[in-house]
Amino acid sequence: MAEVNAPAVDIFMKNLQERCEGLFYLSESEYPLEPIILEVSDTAAVTNADVLKLAGQPEDAPVEVVDLPYFLRNQTADVPDPDEFIQTMVQRFRDLQAFLLAQLQEVKVYRIGRREIQVYALGKLNQSQLAGFKTTSVET
C-alpha cells in the first residue's frame, strides 16, 4: 500500500475547510457543510455498507447514491435577478464542487435515511482515505 503524503492531505483539508466555511445546505432546513476525512483499508473496495458503517448508521439504512453536480444542482443553479449575497453563495458552491471534482477521484454523494437524510459527499483522496463533506437534508 502506498504511503499517505501527510503534508498534501493537510493542505487539501485546509483548502476544503476554507471552501466549506459558512456554507449551508438548504432543504426544508439548513445545515452546515462539514469537511471530513475517513480512513479505510482500500478506497478501491469501498461499498455502500462500508459508508454506512463509517457514518455510524444501521446496516439496513436506505442509501441513495447520486453524483455531486446533481446533489448541488439547486445550490449552483443560476438565479434570476440574484442579489450580491446569493451570487456569492452560488459561486462558492460552484467553486467547492469544482475543487472536489478536481482533487478527488470518483466523487459520490451518499444520502442515508429518510426525512432527515445524512449526506456524505466523498471521493478518493488516496489509497486509504476518503474525503469530502457531510451535511443533513430534511425532506418531509
Task: Note poorly predicted spans.
Answer: none
Question: What is the average per-residue confidence, as pLDDT, rounded to a whole number?
Answer: 94
Q: Which topology does CATH recognise?
A: Nuia
CATH hierarchy: architecture: 3-Layer(aba) Sandwich
Strand order of the largest sheet: 3-7-6-5-4
Summarize the helix and strand pattern as letters: HEEEHEHHHEEE
For the largest beta-sheet, the strand count, sense and barrel status come to: 5 strands, antiparallel
| Discrete helix count | 5
Protein name: Sugar-non-specific nuclease inhibitor NuiA-like protein
InterPro entries: NucleaseA_inhib-like, NucleaseA_inhib-like_sf
Layout of SSEs?
Blueprint: H1 6-20, E1 24-26, E2 30-32, E3 34-39, H2 48-54, E4 63-66, H3 68-71, H4 73-76, H5 84-103, E5 105-112, E6 116-126, E7 129-138
Helix pairs in contact: 1-5
Give an overview in words:
With 140 residues, the chain is of the alpha+beta class. The chain has one domain: Nuclease A inhibitor-like (Nuia). Helix content is 36%, strand content 32%. It contains five helices and seven strands. The chain has a five-stranded antiparallel beta sheet with strand order 3-7-6-5-4, with helices on both faces. A hairpin with a 3-residue loop joins strand 1 and strand 2. Helix 1 (6-20) runs antiparallel to helix 5 (84-103). The longest helix is centred in the C-terminal third of the chain and has 20 residues, at 84-103. The protein is globular and about 50 Å long. It starts with 5 loop residues before the first helix and ends with a strand. The model has no long low-confidence stretch (mean pLDDT 94).
